[in-house]
Amino acid sequence: MRRSPAEDRRRDLRHFANLVANKGVAAVLTSLLYFKQNVPTSRDAPALHRRPIVSSTARALRLTLHFDRALIYPSHMPPNARTDVPRPSQFGIEDFEELIIPTNDGEKLSAFYIRGPREGRNSNVTVLMYHGNAGNIGHRLPIARMMISMTGCNVFMLEYRGYGLSTGEPGESGICLDAQTGLDYLRDRAETCDHKFLVYGQSLGGAVSIKLVADNQKDGDIVGLILENTFLSMRKLIPSVLPPAKYLSLLCHQVWPSDSLIPTITKVPILFLSGQQDEIVPPSHMRKLYDLSQAPNKIFKPLPNGDHNSSVLEEGYFEAISEFIASVTQEYPSTSHEKRRL
Protein backbone atom coordinates (compact mmCIF):
# COMPACT_ATOMS: atom_id res chain seq x y z
CA MET A 1 0.00 0.00 0.00
CA ARG A 2 1.49 3.32 -1.08
CA ARG A 3 2.21 5.88 1.65
CA SER A 4 0.99 9.45 1.35
CA PRO A 5 3.55 12.31 1.08
CA ALA A 6 2.67 13.32 4.66
CA GLU A 7 3.43 9.79 5.88
CA ASP A 8 6.72 9.82 4.00
CA ARG A 9 7.69 13.12 5.64
CA ARG A 10 6.85 11.78 9.11
CA ARG A 11 8.93 8.68 8.40
CA ASP A 12 11.86 10.82 7.25
CA LEU A 13 11.62 13.04 10.32
CA ARG A 14 11.62 10.02 12.63
CA HIS A 15 14.64 8.66 10.81
CA PHE A 16 16.39 12.03 11.09
CA ALA A 17 15.81 12.15 14.85
CA ASN A 18 17.15 8.61 15.18
CA LEU A 19 20.27 9.50 13.21
CA VAL A 20 20.96 12.45 15.49
CA ALA A 21 20.48 10.30 18.58
CA ASN A 22 22.29 7.16 17.47
CA LYS A 23 25.25 8.31 15.37
CA GLY A 24 27.00 10.46 17.98
CA VAL A 25 25.85 13.69 16.36
CA ALA A 26 24.16 14.67 19.62
CA ALA A 27 27.65 15.29 20.99
CA VAL A 28 27.81 18.41 18.86
CA LEU A 29 24.57 19.73 20.28
CA THR A 30 26.15 19.54 23.74
CA SER A 31 29.61 20.73 22.82
CA LEU A 32 28.37 23.83 21.02
CA LEU A 33 27.33 25.13 24.43
CA TYR A 34 31.08 25.50 25.04
CA PHE A 35 30.66 28.91 23.46
CA LYS A 36 28.60 30.09 26.43
CA GLN A 37 29.64 27.79 29.25
CA ASN A 38 33.36 28.51 29.06
CA VAL A 39 33.25 32.28 29.47
CA PRO A 40 32.69 34.26 32.67
CA THR A 41 29.12 35.22 33.45
CA SER A 42 27.53 37.91 35.57
CA ARG A 43 28.12 35.66 38.58
CA ASP A 44 31.79 36.50 38.26
CA ALA A 45 31.12 40.23 38.62
CA PRO A 46 31.69 40.50 42.42
CA ALA A 47 35.13 38.92 42.08
CA LEU A 48 35.99 41.31 39.29
CA HIS A 49 34.86 44.32 41.29
CA ARG A 50 37.06 43.36 44.24
CA ARG A 51 40.17 43.53 42.08
CA PRO A 52 42.15 46.68 41.26
CA ILE A 53 40.79 48.61 38.29
CA VAL A 54 43.90 48.04 36.20
CA SER A 55 43.83 44.31 36.92
CA SER A 56 40.14 44.03 36.05
CA THR A 57 40.60 45.97 32.84
CA ALA A 58 43.62 43.94 31.84
CA ARG A 59 41.77 40.72 32.61
CA ALA A 60 38.78 41.80 30.55
CA LEU A 61 41.12 42.75 27.71
CA ARG A 62 42.77 39.34 27.84
CA LEU A 63 39.34 37.70 27.89
CA THR A 64 38.24 39.70 24.87
CA LEU A 65 41.35 38.87 22.87
CA HIS A 66 41.04 35.21 23.88
CA PHE A 67 37.37 35.36 22.91
CA ASP A 68 38.43 36.39 19.42
CA ARG A 69 39.77 32.97 18.52
CA ALA A 70 39.40 30.24 21.10
CA LEU A 71 35.76 30.95 21.92
CA ILE A 72 34.46 32.13 18.57
CA TYR A 73 36.05 29.22 16.72
CA PRO A 74 36.19 26.15 19.05
CA SER A 75 37.07 23.90 16.13
CA HIS A 76 38.47 21.25 18.48
CA MET A 77 35.04 20.69 20.04
CA PRO A 78 33.77 18.04 20.48
CA PRO A 79 37.03 16.19 21.22
CA ASN A 80 38.66 14.76 18.08
CA ALA A 81 36.57 17.01 15.81
CA ARG A 82 39.72 17.84 13.83
CA THR A 83 40.41 14.20 13.01
CA ASP A 84 37.18 12.24 13.41
CA VAL A 85 34.90 13.36 10.57
CA PRO A 86 31.87 11.13 9.89
CA ARG A 87 31.47 10.16 6.24
CA PRO A 88 28.24 10.24 4.21
CA SER A 89 28.23 6.45 3.86
CA GLN A 90 27.82 6.16 7.64
CA PHE A 91 24.39 7.77 7.23
CA GLY A 92 23.18 5.66 4.34
CA ILE A 93 24.19 8.23 1.72
CA GLU A 94 25.52 6.53 -1.40
CA ASP A 95 25.87 9.11 -4.17
CA PHE A 96 28.55 11.51 -2.96
CA GLU A 97 32.09 12.74 -3.52
CA GLU A 98 34.75 13.61 -0.96
CA LEU A 99 36.69 16.63 -2.19
CA ILE A 100 39.82 18.61 -1.39
CA ILE A 101 39.54 22.16 -2.72
CA PRO A 102 42.57 24.52 -2.72
CA THR A 103 42.26 28.19 -1.83
CA ASN A 104 44.26 30.93 -3.47
CA ASP A 105 46.15 31.54 -0.21
CA GLY A 106 47.46 28.00 0.02
CA GLU A 107 44.96 26.18 2.25
CA LYS A 108 43.21 22.91 1.42
CA LEU A 109 39.54 22.61 2.25
CA SER A 110 37.68 19.37 2.84
CA ALA A 111 34.20 19.12 1.34
CA PHE A 112 31.36 16.73 0.50
CA TYR A 113 29.24 16.96 -2.63
CA ILE A 114 26.08 14.89 -2.15
CA ARG A 115 23.73 14.29 -5.06
CA GLY A 116 19.99 14.27 -4.80
CA PRO A 117 17.84 12.10 -7.09
CA ARG A 118 19.35 12.32 -10.58
CA GLU A 119 16.03 12.93 -12.32
CA GLY A 120 14.37 14.69 -9.41
CA ARG A 121 12.52 17.98 -9.51
CA ASN A 122 15.52 19.89 -8.12
CA SER A 123 18.36 17.96 -9.72
CA ASN A 124 19.71 21.27 -11.05
CA VAL A 125 19.68 22.95 -7.61
CA THR A 126 22.55 22.78 -5.12
CA VAL A 127 22.38 23.94 -1.50
CA LEU A 128 25.63 25.25 -0.02
CA MET A 129 25.69 24.46 3.71
CA TYR A 130 27.77 26.53 6.15
CA HIS A 131 27.79 25.24 9.71
CA GLY A 132 28.10 26.78 13.16
CA ASN A 133 31.20 27.45 15.19
CA ALA A 134 31.95 23.94 16.52
CA GLY A 135 32.17 20.44 15.15
CA ASN A 136 32.71 19.60 11.49
CA ILE A 137 30.77 18.93 8.30
CA GLY A 138 30.38 15.26 9.16
CA HIS A 139 28.34 16.15 12.20
CA ARG A 140 25.78 17.87 9.94
CA LEU A 141 25.27 14.94 7.57
CA PRO A 142 21.86 14.04 9.05
CA ILE A 143 20.73 17.57 8.16
CA ALA A 144 22.05 17.16 4.62
CA ARG A 145 20.31 13.82 4.25
CA MET A 146 17.04 15.29 5.47
CA MET A 147 17.46 18.28 3.15
CA ILE A 148 17.85 15.97 0.17
CA SER A 149 14.91 13.80 1.24
CA MET A 150 12.59 16.77 1.64
CA THR A 151 13.68 18.89 -1.33
CA GLY A 152 15.47 16.69 -3.87
CA CYS A 153 18.34 19.19 -4.05
CA ASN A 154 22.02 18.38 -4.17
CA VAL A 155 24.01 19.46 -1.10
CA PHE A 156 27.53 20.89 -0.95
CA MET A 157 29.18 20.90 2.49
CA LEU A 158 32.41 22.90 2.75
CA GLU A 159 34.70 22.70 5.77
CA TYR A 160 36.17 25.99 6.97
CA ARG A 161 39.93 26.31 7.37
CA GLY A 162 41.04 25.06 10.77
CA TYR A 163 38.00 22.78 11.08
CA GLY A 164 37.72 19.06 10.46
CA LEU A 165 40.25 17.90 7.88
CA SER A 166 40.83 21.35 6.36
CA THR A 167 44.22 22.99 6.85
CA GLY A 168 44.92 26.39 8.38
CA GLU A 169 43.58 28.43 11.29
CA PRO A 170 40.06 29.91 11.43
CA GLY A 171 39.44 33.63 11.20
CA GLU A 172 36.89 35.97 9.64
CA SER A 173 38.76 36.91 6.48
CA GLY A 174 39.94 33.36 5.86
CA ILE A 175 36.52 31.80 6.33
CA CYS A 176 34.99 34.36 3.97
CA LEU A 177 37.60 33.38 1.39
CA ASP A 178 36.74 29.72 1.98
CA ALA A 179 33.04 30.34 1.33
CA GLN A 180 33.84 32.19 -1.89
CA THR A 181 36.21 29.40 -2.92
CA GLY A 182 33.40 26.87 -2.48
CA LEU A 183 30.97 28.87 -4.61
CA ASP A 184 33.58 29.46 -7.31
CA TYR A 185 34.34 25.73 -7.35
CA LEU A 186 30.69 24.92 -8.03
CA ARG A 187 30.47 27.60 -10.71
CA ASP A 188 33.46 26.13 -12.52
CA ARG A 189 32.57 22.46 -12.05
CA ALA A 190 31.05 20.94 -15.20
CA GLU A 191 28.30 19.15 -13.28
CA THR A 192 27.12 22.24 -11.40
CA CYS A 193 28.02 25.23 -13.55
CA ASP A 194 24.40 25.54 -14.73
CA HIS A 195 22.85 24.96 -11.31
CA LYS A 196 20.81 27.34 -9.24
CA PHE A 197 22.30 27.79 -5.78
CA LEU A 198 20.80 28.29 -2.36
CA VAL A 199 23.00 29.26 0.57
CA TYR A 200 22.10 27.86 4.00
CA GLY A 201 23.86 28.97 7.18
CA GLN A 202 23.43 28.08 10.83
CA SER A 203 24.66 30.43 13.58
CA LEU A 204 28.20 31.49 12.56
CA GLY A 205 27.42 29.93 9.19
CA GLY A 206 24.61 32.45 8.84
CA ALA A 207 27.12 35.30 9.02
CA VAL A 208 29.29 33.48 6.47
CA SER A 209 26.26 33.07 4.20
CA ILE A 210 25.14 36.68 4.45
CA LYS A 211 28.59 37.89 3.41
CA LEU A 212 28.75 35.41 0.52
CA VAL A 213 25.33 36.32 -0.85
CA ALA A 214 25.92 40.06 -0.46
CA ASP A 215 29.09 39.74 -2.54
CA ASN A 216 27.62 37.48 -5.25
CA GLN A 217 23.95 38.37 -5.69
CA LYS A 218 24.51 40.25 -8.93
CA ASP A 219 25.65 37.12 -10.77
CA GLY A 220 22.10 35.78 -10.72
CA ASP A 221 22.83 32.15 -9.86
CA ILE A 222 22.04 32.42 -6.12
CA VAL A 223 18.26 32.17 -5.84
CA GLY A 224 17.77 31.92 -2.08
CA LEU A 225 19.35 32.43 1.34
CA ILE A 226 18.33 30.42 4.42
CA LEU A 227 19.42 31.64 7.86
CA GLU A 228 19.05 29.84 11.17
CA ASN A 229 19.75 31.40 14.59
CA THR A 230 22.43 33.82 13.46
CA PHE A 231 23.48 37.13 15.01
CA LEU A 232 23.56 40.83 14.16
CA SER A 233 27.34 41.03 14.58
CA MET A 234 29.93 39.39 16.78
CA ARG A 235 30.43 42.63 18.66
CA LYS A 236 26.72 42.86 19.41
CA LEU A 237 26.66 39.23 20.49
CA ILE A 238 29.48 39.56 23.03
CA PRO A 239 27.38 41.29 25.74
CA SER A 240 25.02 38.30 25.73
CA VAL A 241 27.67 35.61 26.09
CA LEU A 242 30.47 37.52 27.82
CA PRO A 243 28.95 40.28 30.01
CA PRO A 244 32.25 41.35 31.70
CA ALA A 245 33.70 42.22 28.28
CA LYS A 246 30.73 44.13 26.92
CA TYR A 247 32.55 47.48 27.15
CA LEU A 248 35.50 46.04 25.27
CA SER A 249 33.50 44.46 22.46
CA LEU A 250 34.85 47.02 19.98
CA LEU A 251 38.26 45.41 20.47
CA CYS A 252 36.99 42.12 19.06
CA HIS A 253 38.77 41.68 15.74
CA GLN A 254 36.23 39.15 14.46
CA VAL A 255 33.42 41.51 13.45
CA TRP A 256 31.00 39.56 11.19
CA PRO A 257 28.85 42.68 10.51
CA SER A 258 25.68 40.95 9.30
CA ASP A 259 23.51 43.88 10.39
CA SER A 260 25.40 46.11 7.95
CA LEU A 261 25.47 43.59 5.12
CA ILE A 262 21.95 42.20 5.10
CA PRO A 263 20.30 45.47 3.91
CA THR A 264 22.52 45.30 0.83
CA ILE A 265 20.97 41.98 -0.25
CA THR A 266 18.22 43.20 -2.57
CA LYS A 267 18.13 40.52 -5.27
CA VAL A 268 17.87 37.26 -3.28
CA PRO A 269 14.87 36.02 -1.21
CA ILE A 270 15.62 35.11 2.42
CA LEU A 271 14.10 32.59 4.84
CA PHE A 272 14.71 33.30 8.55
CA LEU A 273 14.41 30.27 10.88
CA SER A 274 14.41 31.51 14.47
CA GLY A 275 14.41 29.36 17.61
CA GLN A 276 12.48 31.35 20.18
CA GLN A 277 14.25 29.62 23.09
CA ASP A 278 17.76 30.32 21.79
CA GLU A 279 20.02 30.56 24.83
CA ILE A 280 23.13 31.76 22.95
CA VAL A 281 21.98 34.17 20.23
CA PRO A 282 19.04 36.24 21.53
CA PRO A 283 16.03 35.72 19.23
CA SER A 284 15.85 39.51 18.90
CA HIS A 285 18.94 39.32 16.67
CA MET A 286 17.08 37.27 14.07
CA ARG A 287 14.04 39.53 14.25
CA LYS A 288 16.21 42.61 13.77
CA LEU A 289 17.98 41.04 10.79
CA TYR A 290 14.56 40.33 9.29
CA ASP A 291 13.51 43.94 9.87
CA LEU A 292 16.74 45.22 8.29
CA SER A 293 16.41 42.98 5.25
CA GLN A 294 15.57 44.57 1.90
CA ALA A 295 15.19 41.22 0.14
CA PRO A 296 12.60 40.99 -2.66
CA ASN A 297 10.83 38.31 -0.64
CA LYS A 298 11.49 37.50 3.01
CA ILE A 299 9.88 34.98 5.35
CA PHE A 300 10.23 34.82 9.14
CA LYS A 301 9.58 31.35 10.57
CA PRO A 302 9.52 31.31 14.40
CA LEU A 303 10.18 27.95 16.06
CA PRO A 304 8.51 28.36 19.48
CA ASN A 305 10.41 25.59 21.29
CA GLY A 306 13.66 25.73 19.35
CA ASP A 307 16.87 26.56 21.18
CA HIS A 308 20.21 27.38 19.58
CA ASN A 309 21.14 23.85 18.60
CA SER A 310 17.87 21.91 18.45
CA SER A 311 15.79 24.18 16.21
CA VAL A 312 16.50 21.78 13.36
CA LEU A 313 14.40 19.17 15.19
CA GLU A 314 11.36 21.42 15.52
CA GLU A 315 8.13 20.68 13.69
CA GLY A 316 7.87 22.69 10.51
CA TYR A 317 11.62 23.32 10.14
CA PHE A 318 12.24 21.28 7.01
CA GLU A 319 8.75 21.94 5.68
CA ALA A 320 9.52 25.67 5.72
CA ILE A 321 12.78 25.05 3.86
CA SER A 322 11.07 22.79 1.31
CA GLU A 323 8.35 25.35 0.62
CA PHE A 324 10.89 28.16 0.34
CA ILE A 325 13.06 26.23 -2.11
CA ALA A 326 10.02 25.31 -4.19
CA SER A 327 8.98 28.96 -4.41
CA VAL A 328 12.37 30.41 -5.33
CA THR A 329 13.34 27.72 -7.84
CA GLN A 330 10.07 28.25 -9.71
CA GLU A 331 10.54 32.01 -9.72
CA TYR A 332 14.10 31.97 -11.08
CA PRO A 333 14.64 30.01 -14.31
CA SER A 334 17.90 28.22 -14.96
CA THR A 335 20.70 30.30 -16.43
CA SER A 336 23.85 29.02 -18.07
CA HIS A 337 27.31 29.56 -16.68
CA GLU A 338 28.26 31.40 -19.85
CA LYS A 339 25.36 33.83 -19.56
CA ARG A 340 26.20 34.56 -15.95
CA ARG A 341 29.72 35.51 -16.93
CA LEU A 342 28.73 37.89 -19.75
Automatic annotation (TrEMBL):
<dbReference type="InterPro" id="IPR029058">
    <property type="entry name" value="AB_hydrolase_fold"/>
</dbReference>
<dbReference type="InterPro" id="IPR022742">
    <property type="entry name" value="Hydrolase_4"/>
</dbReference>
<feature type="domain" description="Serine aminopeptidase S33">
    <location>
        <begin position="125"/>
        <end position="257"/>
    </location>
</feature>
<dbReference type="GO" id="GO:0016020">
    <property type="term" value="C:membrane"/>
</dbReference>
<dbReference type="Pfam" id="PF12146">
    <property type="entry name" value="Hydrolase_4"/>
</dbReference>
<dbReference type="GO" id="GO:0008474">
    <property type="term" value="F:palmitoyl-(protein) hydrolase activity"/>
</dbReference>
<protein>
    <recommendedName>
        <fullName>Serine aminopeptidase S33 domain-containing protein</fullName>
    </recommendedName>
</protein>
